[in-house]
Here is the input.
Amino acid sequence: MSAPALRQPKMLNIVRKPPVNVQCFSDDQSVILTLKDCRKLVISSDSYHGILMAGNMYKCVFCGSEMELDNKLKEAHKNLMTHKRCLERYPHLEDFSENLIRKLSNDSLYCSLCNVVMTTTAATRHVTTETHKDQLEKAEIKATTYKPI
Here is the structure.
């Protein structure tokens, strides 16, 4: 029995990802991450790429770029080689394995699940919040039901 033809997600080449295995697939809206323990998580492409909405603009937390509220500009930014190199410089931290926390600087971290920036001192408290736990659970549930468009 053959499966229906679906558009295959693009393969992202990510060099260093301590808590996440090499397999990382993406379509325009979601990213599938495989953790070292073989669990899968599905998060939004914007969260994975560090794109936040700041007022009436998009902002990339990794590159520091600001863009107008235009999805074409946002998607173009995600595909820039300079942005992809920035992502490689900010791997997910081993200490927060399944929580998908990245270190931005000595005093700030970024949560790819919740799409928020926090101080390093708030990280342990953040991963215990109901909001973060809900996002983690949603990412796990999406992984069991997700079918790329």
Remarks:
- The chain has one domain: 10-145.
- The helical segments are 45-49, 71-78, 81-89, 123-127, 130-145.
- Residues 12-18 have pLDDT under 50 and may be disordered.
